[in-house]
Amino acid sequence: MVRDQMLKMTGVTKKFPGVTALSNVNFQLGKGEVHALVGANGAGKSTLIKVLAGAHRPEEGTIELKGEEVYFENPSDAKKRGIGVIYQEFTLLPELDVAKNIFYASEPTYGAGLFVNWKRVYEDARKLIDKFGLNLDVTAKVSSLSTAAQQMVEIAKALSLNAEVLVMDEPTATLTVHEVERLFEIIKDLKSRGVSIIYISHRLEEILEICDKLTVLRSGTMVGGMDIKDATKDNIISMMIGNAMQKPEKPGYYVQDETALEIKGLSNENVTDIHLNVRKGEVIGLAGLVGAGRTELVRALFGADPIREGQIIVNGKSVTISSPRQAIQHRIGLLPESRKEQGLLMNLNVRRNTTFATLKKFSRGPFISKQREKHQVKDYITRLKIKTPDTEFMVVNLSGGNQQKIVLAKWLCNECNILILDEPTRGVDVPAKEEIFQEINNLVKSGKSIIFISSELDEILRVSDRIYTMYKGRITGELDRESVTMNTMMHLITGGDQH
Amino acid sequence: MTAWLQLTKQREFAAFVGLLVLIVGFSIASPDFFTTYNLMNIMRQASIIALLAIGMTFVIIAGGIDLSVGAIASISGTLAAQVMISSGGGVFVGVLTGLGVGIAVGFVNGLIISKFKVPPIIATLALMSVSQGLALAVTGGYPVSGLPDSFAWLGRGFVGAVPIPVIILLLMYIVAHIILNHTKFGAYVFGLGGNEEATRLAGLNVNKIKIWVYVVSGITAAVSGLILASRLGSGQPLAGQGMELNAIAAVVIGGASVAGGVGGVIGSLIGALIMSVLNNGLDLMNINSYYQMIFTGIILALAVASQSKKRKRGK
Q: What's the rounded Cα separation, in Å, for the pair A322 and A300?
C-alpha cells in the first residue's frame, strides 16, 4: 500500500562533544502509518526523536512535513506543527482532573484571554475523548487513574493540539497485558483517522503485531528498514546487533563451588517468582530491558523495597531482610542505579562520601578520626585511580566516572561479601569503565560475589560468569558463559523463547 | 596568605564580613557602641535567639524546620518556674523539669515526622500550638513569679564582666560545633539533609537520626526558655512567642541552606549576633524599633540572595 508522505527526515547528523549521536540518518513516515524505530541502547533512537520534537537541533539534515521543509527552534515549534511526543515519564499534573490536564497551558478563554472557559474545557475534552474512543472520565483526578489511563490522557493531550505525528517512547513498558491490548486498539483507531505513529519499543513481538514498517538504528546510523511483513525476530535482532559481535575475553575465572546467596520464589509488587543463586567468586549478570525488573529485584534483595513472599539464603542460612541496614549486616551491598539521587551526598566531600556508611570503623566512641578516614580514602583513590585533587574535594565537582568510583569505594569500605552493581557503567567514560571492570575482577578473585546489571549486553557478556535474563518482572533464562550468545540473550530479554 | 584565602572560602565568611561592617559602622556612628559593657549587653541580648539557633541549625542541616522552638522555650520556662514555686521542688528539679519538657516535645516532633511522615513544617506547627496552649493552660495565662534568687543567677549573673548566659551560650556552641563536625551523629545529620535516600541505602536508621535532631532542638530551646525565665524573673507563658522565626533567620543568615545538607553553628552564631548588633546599634542611634524590623528583613533577604547566587556559580 502506498501512503501519502507525512514526514521525511533526510541526512540528519547530530554531534555531541566527543560522539556523533546520529550520522546521516534518513527516516520516512507515511500518513496513517505505524512505524517502529528499533535499536539497542545508545543506537540513537532518543536523539532522533529529540531532533524531531525540536529539543535538539541537528548539525545537518532537513525535516519535511507533508512536503514542506520545517525548522524547529524549540519543542513548542514542533508541537504547533503537529508533532506530539509521549515520553516514558508522563508530564501530567496528578492533582488535576483529566480535562484540565488535556488543555493545560492551552485552555480556551474568553474576555480578551483573561478568563478560562471551563465549560468549554470539559466539553472539548469530552468530544475529543469520544472521537478517539479513549474511554476516560473527564472529571477524574489523574492521580486516581491507572498507568494505562494516564497514558491515554497524554495521548488526548497531544491530539488536542491536532497532532498528526505521534511519537510513543516505550509505551508498553509499564502496562499490563490487557492494557497493552487496549492501547493497540487505540493505535489502530488513530491510524484509521490518518494519525501517523512512530513506535519505539524493545519488545519485538509487539512491533510485529502493531507496526506497518520498521527502521533499525545502530550506533547512530540507519542500518535498514523494511515492511513488517518481511520482518522476523531473527533478522531484526541481527540488524540491531550487527555481525561483528565477538564474545569478549574475560580476564579470569574464580568461581568456587560454595553458594554465597540463593533466592527462592521471591515476589513483590514488581517481580514474580524469582529463583537464582550466586556462588562465591562468581559474577552474575542480570540482563534485561528498561522496566524488566532488574533494579526492582536487587532493591528487594537489598531490603530497599518490601518483599511479598520468598526466601533469601545467605551462606546456607535463611535470613530476613526488610531494610538496607539488615542487608548490610548480612554483608550485602548495593551500588544503586542512580548515583546522584541514591548514591552520593552531593553536599559532602570525597572523604566523607567514601566513609559515610562505615564511620564506626573510623571512630573512637562518638568521635570520628579524620586522619584514619583520610588514610583509608587515599588508599582507595590510588587503588581505583580516582581523579580528585585530594580527599577534601567536593564530589559535585568530579566527573561521572570518578563519582561512580567513589560510590564503589564506599561499598568496598563496607567489605561486603555480595556486592550488587546496578548500572555501574552508565554515564561513565571508557577508561573509568575499564577500571571498574578491573575492580570487579579483583573482588571475585578474593572470593567475593558480584551481581552485575547493565543495559549494555556486551558489558554483561564481558564480565559475567553466568547470566540471568529478565523480562516483565520474571527470570526468562539462565545462560552459562560458554553457551551464551548475543542472539540468545536478545531473544530472552525481548520476550522470545530460548533458542 | 593561603590561610586567608581558605578563610574567605568558608561558608560563614560573608556573614562574618557583614558583622564586622556593622560593628565598624556603629562604632563610628555612636561612641557608646564599642564599649565592653555594650558588647556584653549585645551578647546577652543575642543569647536567647542564639541558643534556639543551635538546635535550629541541626534541624535545618538535616533538611527540616522547627517552628515549635519559641513555644518550647515558653513552656519550659513556665513549667520550671511552676515546679520551683508552687510545687516547692527547688531550683535543681525545676531546671531538670524544663529540660525534660524540651526533650519530650522534641521527641514527639521527631516521632510524628519520622514515623508518621508528617512534613516538619506541619508537625512542628502542631506542637507549637500544643506547647503554647499547655503553657497558657497550666498558668491560667498569668506569669509565674517569685522565683528563688539562686535561679536568677542563671540569667542575670556575671563572672567578671561576662554575663552567665553568654558563658552558657559559648559552651553550648563549642559542644554543638564538635558534635556537628567531629562525631558520627553530626556526619549523619549532614548526610540526611544532603540525600535521605542515599543515607537510607547506606544502611542507616534514618528515623532515629531525625528523632535525635528534633530532641537536640528541644534541648537548646529549653535552655533558652530557662535563661529567659531567669532574666525576666518569672515564667511567662508567652515569653518565647515568635522567636522561632528569628532563630530561623539567624541560621539562614549564617549560611545554612533551607534545602538541607549545608550549614554550621558558627554561621548561626554570627547570624544571631548580626541581628542583635543591628537592634542595639539602631537603638543607640535612637532609631525606632519599627525600623529595626525593616532592616532585619532586608538583611535576611540580601543574605540568602547572595548565597543562592554563589551556590549557583559554584556548580
A: 8
Return the residue in A325, A335, A347 with the most chain B beta carbons within 10 A, the one to mutate for interface testing. Answer: A347
Residues A195 and A92 in one domain: yes
Is the ipTM reported for this complex over the cut 0.90?
no
- The pLDDT value recorded for residue A243 is 60
> What amino acid occupies position B19?
L
Contact in structure between A45 and A51 (CB atoms under 8 Å): no
b/e for A23-36, b at 16 or more Cβ within 10 A? bebebbbbbbbbbb
* A61 and A193 inside one domain: yes
Identify which of B185, B201, B204 has the shortest CB distance to residue A334.
B201
* Structure confidence at residue A499 as a pLDDT band (50, 70, 90): very low
Residue recorded with cell 493505535: A187
- What is the 3-class SS of B73-130, one letter each residue? HHHHHHHHHHHHHCCCCHHHHHHHHHHHHHHHHHHHHHHHHHHCCCCHHHHHHHHHHH
pTM for the whole structure = 0.83
Is-contact A169 A154, C-beta < 8 A? Answer: no
Does residue B252 form part of some domain? yes
CA distance A405 to chain B (A): 15
Q: How many CB atoms lie within 10 A of CB B174?
A: 11
Q: Which of residues 352-371 of A touch B (CB under 8 A)?
A: 352, 356-357, 359-360, 363, 366-368, 370
pLDDT in tens, A398-416: 888 899 999 999 999 998 9
Boundaries of domain holding A220:
5-241
Q: CB–CB of B315 and A396 under 8 A?
A: yes
Tell me, yes or no, whether A278 and A213 share the same domain.
Answer: no
Please check the confidence at residue A482 and state whether its pLDDT lies above 90.
no
Number of domains in chain B: 1
Percent of chain A with pLDDT over 70: 97
| Residues in Cβ contact with B290 at an 8 Å cutoff, skipping those fewer than 6 apart | none
Q: Is A63 exposed, middle or buried (0-12, 13-18, 19+ CB in 10 A)?
A: buried
- Report the domain count for chain A: 2
Which residues from B are below 8 Å from A343, CB to CB?
A: 198, 201
Please state which of the ranges A64-78, A246-260, A290-304, A338-352 shows the lowest mean pLDDT: A246-260
